[in-house]
Amino acid sequence: MSESPIGLNLGAPVPDFEITTYEPTEKGFGTFSLADQKEKGRWTVLFFYRADFTFV
Could you tell me the pTM of the whole model? Predict the structure, then answer.
């Protein structure tokens, strides 16, 4: 990962991003895009668990 982390404060808007996800119903990988979620009017809850390299 070559990008430096972005500091966010509570209540600050999250910059748009796209990440690779695991889709258990399809038994494969997919992508998640915050911009797509916003466009569809969906609520999104983001949580981060530092230093854990296992699937949640």
Answer: 0.59
| Cα dihedral 24, 28, 33, 38 sign | negative
The arithmetic mean of pLDDT across residues 22-38, rounded, is: 90
Rg (CA), the chain: 13
Q: Which helix (H) or strand (E) holds 30?
A: strand 28-33
Six-digit token pair at 50?
Answer: 């530092």
55: left (phi over 0), alpha (psi -120 to 50) or beta: beta
- Structure tokens given for 55: 């699937």
